[in-house]
Design a protein that fits this description.
single chain, 13 helices, binds D-gluconic acid, alpha/beta, globular, two-stranded antiparallel sheet
Length: 401
């Protein structure tokens, strides 16, 4: 655990305090996308099915009410493309109405709805014909974004086109941990990077052509990448493929979304294990809240755009450790602001304990626990702690022990 300081730290007026979720991780019953198929493929290595998740497709109002009651200013959630376009070119008005009600409920509580149009899942009809390798995937995505924006645009607060396209490409085609579960296909990985860049640009255009006026951006998975002795080449090559290609594609956007959890260390032969003495989180990577400030600075200087920390958090059973992590991450955000970096907001990942992809329900990222049988929501001390940060616009001094 990282100790805090004794001083209260003030944040400037207007910081957007929020929490984030993703449709497939909380809705339940998303049977029509590539992840559902992957979870049910015994060779994928997934721990379990997403199943009913947190039943948020039905309990979304409770979730939105909770975010408001905690005193936050924004709720980031994603649209499930496979519900909105269950078959190619066939759009569900009922599904669009569902997300419209969510946006309206946020607005009714004074919460900014921060809407993500793609958060890891792709409809089966597209995945089955090549997914993001299909030549028309970016156009299919743009058609979906156009249709969804026409229905919801007037109620959107902020829009994120694609969540962590860099993670989807590396996990899907180099590491094999996401659909389609391919390993070491570097050319395909690069081609999918390119498809996502095209899709993002088309989506920005589509979002700007519809109703409503709201900031539009991309969210990226970013790590503090460091080189141990002799690891510089690997570090720089990894940074290029994992982050730079996408940072370079954000010209003309309104913001860059930074999602940062840990540090990656490189040696002369590639990625190194965690450093001795640095604790690991439930995810198996280093407890490294300093990564948030590091990546915010990197994203801001690479793009020149305002930064929204669209995700930051920790998988842990120990909620005090979560508070300590968030405290340290937020001290880092404050140091960025002190240096003139334009950080507009900070979103905790995640509102709920939820489906952590191939790892299933074991990692606990939520500031709110969810009973896996009754779906009852139970706010943890970190939820109240973060609510107080949001309401007072300041970081309390000592980390409670
Ligand atoms: C991600 C995702 C989330 C994860 C979170 C914790 O960006 O990876 O947005 O879906 O659950 O990052 O691993």
């Amino acid at each position: 655990m990282v100790a805090g300081t004794d001083e209260t730290i003030e944040f400037p007026e207007g910081v957007l305090w929020g929490t984030a979720t993703a449709a497939h991780q909380i809705e339940g019953g998303n049977v029509n996308n590539d992840w559902w198929a992957f979870e049910h493929d015994p060779s994928s290595g997934c721990a379990e099915s997403s199943g009913d998740a947190c039943d948020s497709f039905h309990r979304w109002r409770e979730d939105v009410d909770l975010v408001a009651e905690l005193g936050l200013g924004a709720y980031r959630f994603s649209l499930e493309w496979s519900r909105i376009e269950p078959a190619e070119g066939e759009f569900s008005v009922a599904a669009l109405d569902h997300y419209r009600r969510m946006c309206a409920a946020c607005q009714g509580h004074g919460l900014q709805p921060v809407v993500t149009f793609h958060h890891f899942t792709t409809p089966r009809w597209l995945a089955d014909r090549g997914g993001w390798e299909s030549p028309d995937a970016p156009d299919c995505f743009a058609r979906f974004v156009t249709r969804a924006t026409a229905h919801l645009g007037d109620l959107i607060g902020w829009a994120c086109t694609i969540n962590e396209p860099n993670a989807v490409a590396v996990m899907g085609y180099t590491l094999g941990g996401f659909p389609p579960g391919v390993k070491d296909a570097f050319d395909r990985h690069l081609a999918v990077n390119g498809a996502f860049v095209r899709a993002h640009r088309l989506a920005v255009e589509a979002l700007r052509s519809g109703p409503g006026t709201f900031p539009v951006g991309l969210t990226l998975s970013m790590a503090e990448m460091v080189a141990a002795e002799g690891g510089e080449q690997f570090r720089d090559a990894a940074a290029q493929v994992l982050e730079d290609q996408f940072l370079e594609a954000t010209g003309g956007d309104d913001f860059i979304g930074v999602q940062s959890y840990t540090r990656l260390r490189f040696g002369p032969k590639g990625l190194l294990a965690g450093e001795d003495g640095v604790p690991l989180t439930q995810m198996g990577y280093e407890y490294w809240p300093q990564a948030v400030a590091h990546t915010v600075r990197r994203a801001a200087s690479a793009t020149g755009l305002p930064v929204l920390v669209t995700e930051s958090g920790i998988g842990t059973e120990d909620d005090r450790e979560r508070i300590a992590y968030l405290h340290e991450a937020l001290r880092g955000v404050r140091s960025c602001l002190d240096d003139g970096v334009d950080v507009r907001g900070y979103f905790v990942w995640s509102l709920l304990d939820n489906f952590e992809w191939s790892l299933g329900y074991r990692p606990k990222f939520g500031i709110v626990g969810v009973d896996r049988t009754t779906f009852e929501r139970r706010p943890k001390p970190s939820a109240h702690w973060f609510g107080e940060v949001a309401r007072t616009n300041q970081l309390p001094g000592p980390v409670p022990s």
